[in-house]
Amino acid sequence: MKLVILEPLGVEKEKLLALAQEKLGDRAQIVYYDSRTTDEQELAQRAGDADIAVLSNLPFRKAVMERCESLKMISVAFTGVDHVDMDHCREKGILVSNCAGYSNTAVSELVFGLALSLYRRIIPCDRAVREGKDKTGLVGFELSGKKFGVVGMGAIGTRTARLAKAFGCEVLGFNRSPRQIEGVRMVELDTLLKECDIVSLHVPLTEQTRGLIGERELGLMKPGAILINTARGPVVDSAALADALEKGRLAGAAVDVFETEPPIPQDHPLLSAPNVVATPHVAFATKEALYQRAVIVFDNVAGYLDGKPQNVM
């Protein structure tokens, strides 16, 4: 079997290849690319004779896979697979595995870094110190006692809810399928949006969740509420969110994900909106999470080679 790692995975090359050797032994010939490309012709050349492809969040579409006649399995070093043409994979019998769970801690911790940044005005505070100013106009808020809403009660959402409880928040949750989580009051989405001071999004990108938070939903939120999106960019209507912030209908927003992978266009509406903290899709990116992701990537490949596929999408 020829296994092609199409892009760097955030783990040092030597450590990554040693891990692959440990997990797979001599059952796979491994080719590693230490640069990222989104050029479809280049991707097709890299993966052209691969039996197994490993990628993170590179767009991997039908136009590329049609030129990969040997492809049997894709091990996606990511939780979501919306960047992979799953219809083509199902049609051709290409197995796709993901890395569910690798970044639960990383993402949920960043949520609170972002929430605290907005509530305690950390970025303006830093700027004030550097400009020789004092704390005038920089009095913040406490998380304790606030209503914290979690939209999507999967593994990351559930961990986020537990951290919110630890901060002393009252936690409300919404999930598309019925779930009961200890310490979380499960409600309908509209109720959560109306009641919560902080709303954190943790849903995958599907046709059902695309545009989940639009003008109507933002209009339901409290004027002093903040929205945090570490899920997927298209879950939120960015123009509507920017408009709500401009008009003071929301107090702030923290955004780690956009319609496209960063770098984003400098005229993106959220970059000029007030009270926005933006990060370049780093919620998953900790040293610990990236190494755990690599472990799962090669465990998925080993499972496939053993005839016991896991994390199948």
From TrEMBL:
Q: Which UniProt key words apply to this protein?
A: NAD, Oxidoreductase
- Which GO molecular function terms does the record list? NAD binding; oxidoreductase activity, acting on the CH-OH group of donors, NAD or NADP as acceptor
D-isomer specific 2-hydroxyacid dehydrogenase catalytic domain: residues covered: 16-310
Do you know which Pfam families this protein is assigned to?
Answer: 2-Hacid_dh, 2-Hacid_dh_C
Which InterPro entries does the entry mention? D-iso_2-hydroxyacid_DH_PdxB, D-isomer_2_OHA_DH_cat_dom, D-isomer_DH_CS, D-isomer_DH_NAD-bd, NAD(P)-bd_dom_sf
Q: Which residues form the D-isomer specific 2-hydroxyacid dehydrogenase NAD-binding domain?
A: 112-283
Q: Which family does it belong to?
A: Belongs to the D-isomer specific 2-hydroxyacid dehydrogenase family.
In Swiss-Prot or TrEMBL terms, this protein is called Hydroxyacid dehydrogenase
Source organism of the structure: Candidatus Eisenbergiella merdavium
Taxonomic path: Bacteria, Bacillati, Bacillota, Clostridia, Lachnospirales
